[in-house]
Amino acid sequence: MDQTESATSSGGGRQTILQMRNVSKTYGSARALNGVSLNVRENEIHSLTGENGAGKSTLMKILAGAVAPDPGSEIWAFGRRVTIHRPQDAAALGISIIYQELSLSPNLSVAENIYLGRELSHGSIVNRSKMNVGARNVLNRLGSSINASSPVSSLSIAERQLVEIARAVHVNSRILIMDEPTTALSERETDRLFALMHQFRQDGIAIIYISHRMNEVYQLSDRVSVLRDGEYVGTLERDKISPDTIVRMMVGRELSSFYKKAHETPREREPVIFSVRDMSDGKRVKGCSFDVHRGEVLGLAGLVGAGRTELARLIYGADQRISGTIEVNGSKKEIRSPAEAIRAGIVYLTEDRKRLGLFLEMSVSENINVGVIEQDARFGGFLRRGMARRRAGQSVKSLSIRTPSINAAVGALSGGNQQKALLARLLELKPRVLFLDEPTRGIDIGAKSDIYRVVDKMAKENIAVVVISSELPELVGICDRVLVMREGKIAGEVGNAPGKTPLTQENIITIATAAFSNAN
Amino acid sequence: MVANTAEAKTVRRPFLTAAIQALGMLPILILLGLTFQISSGYIETGSLSSALTGGRFMSWQNLSIVAAQASINTVLAAGMTFVILTGGIDLSVGSILAASAMLGLIVSLLPHYSFLGFAACLFTGLILGLVNGTLIALLRLPPFIVTLGSLTAVRGVARLFSNDRTVFNSELSFAFIGNQTFYGVPWLMVIAFSVIVISWLILRRTVLGVHIYAVGGNADAARLAGIKVPVILIVVYGISGLLAGLGGAMSAARLFAANGVQLGQSYELDAIAAVILGGTSFVGGTGSIWGTLIGALIIAVLSNGLILTGVSDIWQYIIKGLVIIGAVGLDRYRLARATRS
User: Fold this and answer.
1) What is the DSSP pairing of strand A206-210 with strand A45-49?
2) DSSP of A394-429, one letter per residue?
3) CB-based contacts of B243: which residues, under 8 Å, 6+ apart?
4) Which of helix, strand or coil describes residue A85?
5) How far is the C-alpha of A32 from the C-alpha of A62, rounded, in Å?
6) Can you name the residues that pair with A223 across neighbouring β-strands?
7) Are A359 and B205 inside 8 Å of each other by CB?
8) Whole-number CA gyration radius for chain B
9) Strand A288-293 to A272-280 pairing
10) Contact in structure between A462 and A295 (CB atoms under 8 Å)
11) I need a labelling partner for A384 at 20 to 30 A (CA). Which of A130, A160, A414, B177 fits?
């Protein structure tokens, strides 16, 4: 247990080699980071954690030179103030980042990837054999037997990650940032990675480790820093780290009275109006089954990548499934395409309204009416423009969509109003099952409350509402029951009915991150 | 905030914007016309003062020649507009035109079925277009590749039909559309204008039209909105093929003949140029059929005017190419400025 020994000294005597002070980042009007600080000491494993959207990745992208911070942000490295404008600046300081989505060129060889941008050459001719030898040496040091001349496309995910690490080691990195490196790894591969990280620490490399997985953070870290909503919450020393404290720091905020449930009491005794059995795609969704009761708002929680969106898309017929049955109001539905899902009364609000939802150059009216023009049409396909105008006008009024006119291009509206226009399109279809995927992401507070009002109204009209959200207060506030997904499966359920795990943010995070179940 | 107000100003009123987009190229059309009028007048009369009135370009007779020349390209370009609005391309229209004209002539020579010649043209075009569409929509092959292939293959089919000879029929049943007038207006022009009006009706007044714009604007979103994207794609390539078939009938009617090697050679390029000149976006989703009409007229005016002013064949090519690039560049510049201010 040498790692705990060297860590319990609370860093006494160890020098701080990296300081980020008052770091802010705004995208347009959205604030991703607000005056965040972070101190990293030499040879430590420093975990950075927080909910989805807390700002971890943005902070690390700033450090790696991929994103420019707002003016006033300060970064100090090795005792002096530095500016990191480009990835090359970060590399010159010995900062390397290994991204969640691996950044290797699959068609190049292992050695070529390790030497990418720093190729060895005689004049302009690449010296492959020398690069292969160099790569071989680095990989040996990491205890790996990957063939340096084989193409990266032939490697497994774990091996590719090792190549990325080899590249970082090869440039003599002193600070290594790892963003969710274990997501795609098996348990054995994870163990090997952790052993490597301990070795690096002994070699004097500081590691900033980003992870959602509480047990990993708990097991590995010398210190843990927590971000929440783009703000720095605090840093825990080794002896203060426990899953409980971290979860509390991650959640932090008070439940506001902003949210309102459609019904006061749990709805689980009501009849089932929508049911899904054994839904799988063979990749990211593994045998999910659930029911929605009459008047119930069901939440789907989980970390990014847990399979929530994928599950909704499978049910909606947007992707190919390998198994699964769907029943709406007791009758079985064959759904192989979104068109068939809509016919069965199931609609889905996408999480990515610009890329997958709206027709940005088309008008508000056309965007709202696009699903119903066919049923409204006369003489075999001629538009009824009066009808379309009426529908659009009513939607604009009832959802208070702020637009100069129903003929304005939807792309010119604000995010919240775009979202409401997209929602209006779904409501025109008179759905019986309404899936809302991150319905309030990136929209202002007024639009949020308009959307909650719709959820409320739908539930009262006995339409099954399923809300996917990464915002826990939202799920706790508006849902009667929440299913928590983890790694493609429904890992648990929280709700307010007697005998259930109570519906709290802490309980959701605990299940989503497997904070306790995997720790022992 | 600044970006927001700028965005808010690009409020779209479908008709007005369509008109403005079409108008965007109208000044260039008029400018070209004036230029040719003056230069042909100068050549004719030898003095600048009487150049404007003495020019031959704007005579009624010459303008109707221009319109007739524009009409076949207009019909092809109308079909091309449907395809490009979905973000696709149809390189095979020239070849389809040749194959359709050929088959129409062959049918018109059959003893008892000569009256079916015109229908044979349309039918051939439609079928070939549907084949393109099916390959693109169902096998998900890139439109450029599929229609590049059929550009070559269908040209071969046109030659195969006739054993590589020119087919004549001096008593062609539908020859009137190539040579006669309807209340003083050449039938070719009547057909071309009708095609534009019907295309406008389809694009702006029917469910199909909305779906075409939706697929071109955002194919993923269209699928999630329940639109059957493959069906839309098959339909637009079908329309393009059908109109190429109509173009074939128009060519055959004008010439009383069809030749598999030469007929419709590189017509696809003029059709694409007309659509792009008309302001339709190459990535799909925005554009109008009226713009296409203006685009087709610009190309016809250029060809006619350059001949009229005695520019050599070689320079005609060079000037035509440069005008197309310059006009589109000017249009982009104007639109960019309009959205910025």
Assistant:
1) parallel
2) HHHHHTT---S-TTSBGGGS-HHHHHHHHHHHHHHT
3) B75, B76, B78, B79, B93, B125, B195
4) coil
5) 12
6) A46, A237
7) no
8) 21
9) antiparallel
10) yes
11) A414
- Among B12, B218, B285, the residue with its CB nearest the CB of A408 is B12
* CA of A269 vs chain B CAs: smallest distance (Å): 33
Distance of CA B118 to the CA centre of its chain: 20
**Residue that the structure tokens 């590249």 belong to:** A167
Nearest to B206 among A359, A366, A383 (CB): A383
Contacts of B210 in chain A (CB under 8 A): 366, 370, 373, 383
**Nearest CB neighbour to A339, from listed B8, B208, B228:** B228
> pLDDT value at position B10?
41
Asked whether the beta carbons of residue B13 and residue A357 sit closer than 8 angstroms, the reply is no
Residue B268: C-alpha distances to residues B64, B79, B125, B192, B263 (Å): 23, 11, 14, 16, 12
Residue A207, H or E segment = strand A206-210
Which of A343, A361, A379, A425 to probe by mutation at the B interface, max B CB count within 10 Å? A361
Structural domains of chain A, with CATH: 1-8+15-92+210-252 (3.40.50.300), 256-345+431-520 (3.40.50.300), 358-430 (no CATH)
Please, what's the b/e burial string for A256-291 (b: 16 or more CB within 10 A of its CB; e: otherwise)?
A: eeebebbeeebbbeeebbbbbeebbbeebbbebebb
Instruction: Tell me, yes or no, if the pTM score tops 0.90.
Output: no
Three-class DSSP category at A92 = helix
Mean pLDDT of B9-22: 51
Strand partners, B182: B185
Closest CA to A306 of A482, A142, A152, A139: A482
**pLDDT band for position B68 (cuts 50, 70, 90):** confident
Q: Which tens digits make up the pLDDT trace of A276-331?
A: 999 999 989 999 999 999 989 999 999 878 899 999 999 999 999 999 999 999 99
Q: Which residues pair with A483 in a beta bridge?
A: A300, A493
Residues in B closer than 8 angstroms to A389, CB to CB, are: none
Of A341, A363, A383, the CB nearest to B12: A363
A186-205 pLDDT, tens digit per residue, is 777 788 889 889 988 988 89
A355 has a chain B CB within 8 A of its CB? yes
Greatest C-alpha distance within chain A: 84
| Pairing assessment for the beta strands B185-186 and B181-182 based on DSSP bridges | antiparallel
Give the model confidence (pLDDT) of B139-166 as tens digits.
Answer: 999 999 999 999 999 999 999 998 989 9
**Helix B229-255, helix B117-138: angle, nearest 10:** 150
Q: Inspect the interface and report whether the beta carbons of B218 and A425 lie closer than 8 Å.
A: no
| Residue A291: HSE in the Cβ half-sphere, 13 Å Cα cutoff | 11
User: Does domain B60-332 fall into CATH 1.20.120?
Assistant: no
Can you tell me which residue has the tokens 């519906």? A503
Determine phi and psi for B39, rounding to 5 degrees: -70, -35
